[in-house]
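Treating backbone geometry as a discrete language has practical consequences that deserve illustration. The amino acid sequence and the backbone structure tokens for this protein are reproduced below.
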Amino acid sequence: MKPVKLGLLGLGTVGGGVVNLLERNRDEIGRRAGREIEVVHAATRHPDRARSCSIEGIRVSTDPMAVVDDPETEIIIELIGGETAARELIERAIDQGKHVVTANKELIAKAGNEIFGKARDRGVTLGFEAAVAGGIPIIKAVREGLVGNRIEWLAGIINGTANFILSEMFYNGREFGDVLAEAQRLGYAEADPSFDVDGIDAAHKLTILASIAFGIPLQYDRVYMEGIGHISRDDVAYAQELGFRIKHLGICRRNDSGLGLRVHPTLVPERQLLASVDGVMNAVMVNGDALGPTLYYGAGAGAEPTASAVVADLVDVVREFTLEPENRVPYLAFQSHALSHEVALPMEDVETAYYLRLLARDKPGVLAEVARLLAEEGISIEAIIQKQPEPGASEVPVIILTHRVREWLMNRACERIEALEAIEGSAVRIRVETLGS
């Protein structure tokens, strides 16, 4: 049987990893797919640049559209990223009846509903395992391995840069700005780190995970995003004193009112497995009604971890060549006509517990007044710590841990607390999730 011919858009870090993996494990991959798989045409902006892979036998072009239009290519691998050009190339490939594999989380999160519709109409497969959590096969696990479960919630560390920063703050007592600068020197963070530290990257990935887990259309514009820039080493230390670690999580949970899609710093119990995921590693916890909680852990980025996910999609596409489109695994796990029209909740309606850090004047009655205001809003206190004032200081840090409450109630309570004469500045708020612990 003839080998399957691939067109590769992008010969950077991940593209080079794909070429290397396909060559190194050629026999193993061919045995799994039932046919050999080989790259025959690749596009790159820098054809003369030194590479981590051999391009012998591969036609190299500076025009990605030439790769898509090449009549020899049967599957197009899109690794150039971004929205406009990538979307044009993917839709051109779909129009020509070519299958597509992509690692483009931003494009899938924002335009996936339309792109999947085009692919479905044309009868082609679109694989995107590498778009979420690098090499961790989380999409396949949720889409296929957990189909007998009703997913109740999922939560994940899905951005390695933010996790690296919080890990360094925890282990070495460093401030956010110092660790961010180191992450940029190490290449973990870009010169403009907002995609990572503000939660944008994680929101793209959560959008995809939530759709697959709960059978809803992709809803990136409904994801609540909050970054980690306001977290101090004091917060990290106080959280540890209370038995928690601070992690930047993407969370999707269903309550009586609907689904909440949110990315934000979160206090997680130290005994919880997610709390021990450090450095640039990723992990996703999924809770199903039949299986209970399961954890998927591994490298969330890098040449070969991401290439591993790309190749897994390639093998799936080749295996499905002879299947009728209606017999293939649905893109978003549920049949397209059976997707729910449920809309993600506004953040104000989401319910969580809270960590509050206040700066209060060191005088009698302040704690009692804060507790009274919380009680008037129906918010109960689980724990409270009042620290000793620094020498010469007239204010003391007060740390409060609450039980679960709707966000809008906490918003109102914080406004009232911050208006107190004895409270300096704004309250620092971090949400708390026990994740079944």
About this structure: DSSP finds 14 helices and 17 strands in the chain. The longest helix spans residues 105-122. The mean pLDDT is 93. The chain has three domains: 4-136+303-338, 138-299, 349-432.
